[in-house]
Amino acid sequence: MVRPRTRLPAVDWLLDPVREWAADLHWVAFVSIPVFTGVVGWLINWSGLWMLFAPLRFHGVRVPGMAELSRVLPRKIQEVPGLLQGGVGWQGIIPARAAKMGSIAVDKAIAKLGTPAEFYQQLEPERIAEHIVAVFRPEVPELVDEVMTREHPRLWRDLPQPVKDAVHHRVQDQLPDVVGRVTTEIGIHIDQLLDPKIMVIDHFQENPELVVRIFRDFGQRELDLMVRFGFVFGFLLGVPVAVVDSIAHQAWLLPVLGIVVGWVTNALGMWLIFEPPEPKRILGITWHGLFPRRQRQAAEVYAQIIAEDVITLERIGDFLLDGPRGDRTRQMLATALRPAIDQAAGPARGALRVAIGGGRFDTIRESVAREAVGRTLTPFKDPTFSAQQAEKIRVLVARRTQELPPRDFVEMMRAAIKEDEWMLYAHGAIMGAAGGFLHLLVFGVQGG
Q: Which terms are listed as keywords in the entry (predicted)?
């Protein structure tokens, strides 16, 4: 005869509460909690991405007195886009911090990519000089005529045309040497004349869509994956929430735990994108941030944007002439161009100084030099030529960005949002709490 097995009292002591809990459990409400938190997690990450990138410009309303009030609020609150300017509304976190990302990008990456002199050498000054000569040569007669007509109209009018033509030809013949001297002078002093950091910051601030492109063009797949993971994270975090809620039977519990789930879901999403910067094995699984694992592809996208839109020959020309150090550039170029007038006069230089006076001759020389400065760098602004030279900058930036230490690369990419991530987490917490209240409204309190 088989004797019945006796159950150990300790097992009953452990299982009885579980049986009672299962008997009292409202299974539909219980199962719905992870589903709710999963959907909320998806919505949190989806809307969080929208908050990161949109809108490009501030959208909102100006509130009288808000600017003054915001200055006494905590520093973190002041960082909300628009508050310090007296507005209530929103601007995408990345567009709002475009200038800051530009600054850190220069410090972390572009400054290590090369000095201004290296960038300038990549643009092949010899080819630039050849292009300037080709574009500037046909303009020489008009330039000389304008200056001479303005400074000494009677003398220039009375000169026979062959003499005028001879002056034009003399200046044109000197152009290769003069322009070569100009491009050499720029190269020698480029570190004092060109500031890539100001160029990048100003351009990113004026064109925040470029910063958005950097993320979108290479990372859209990873960003979409983060949204899908929002459901996974939310669902998994919802399981212990459902267990705790089914035991505690407290109305306040779901909204409070929803805050935790929302905050953690967003934090996990950001961690998934950026951390760890280098592969690490944790619990037998290799973890590597979604962005840093694609550093090589990101470098190509980043380099393309920098070479085509930021540090271009066209913008270098603008910066040299019209930037904060433009006066110094103009003075340097005028100094390099002055000897052209003396050489154009040739053997007649002494006679000309006597005929028109030394002061007037010097004025003419200075006028030609000043007029020629702007025209000398005008070919920098030729979009076709600038695009041809951009490839060399792209190759330099891509190679150096690929060589960046992973931690520096991550910091460069995360710079635009690092200090403002708390807004995303707070947004997740608010949505998590809203999800908890919605579940209470639909299902009530478990066991209540």
A: Membrane, Transmembrane, Transmembrane helix
**161-193 helix and 140-151 helix, angle to the nearest 10 degrees:** 100
Q: Tell me if residue 61 falls in helix, strand or coil.
A: strand
pLDDT digits (tens, 9 = 90+) for 368-394: 666 667 667 676 777 777 777 778 778
- Tokens matching residue 219: 């990372």
Tens digits of residue pLDDT in 72-127: 778 777 777 777 777 787 888 888 888 777 777 666 666 665 677 777 777 778 88
Q: How far apart are CA 198 and CA 215, in angstroms?
A: 22
Whether 410 and 91 have beta carbons less than 8 Å apart is answered as: no
Side chain identity, residue 173: D
What letter represents residue 420's amino acid?
D
**Of 438, 441, 422, the residue nearest 80 (C-alpha):** 422
d(CA 298, CA 303): 8
The DSSP call for residue 59 is: E
Q: Are 431 and 266 in contact (CB under 8 A)?
A: no
> Residue 381: which of 289, 316, 307, 311 has the closest Cα?
316
* Closest by Cα among 361, 359, 363 to 345: 361
Q: What single DSSP character describes residue 90?
A: E
Could you give the CA distance from residue 259 to residue 436 in angstroms, rounded to a whole number?
A: 8
Strand partners, 60: 89
Task: Name the pTM for this structure.
Answer: 0.68
**Please, how many CA atoms are within 13 Å of residue 164, restricted to the half-sphere of its CB?**
18
How many other CB atoms are there within 10 angstroms of residue 251's CB atom? 14
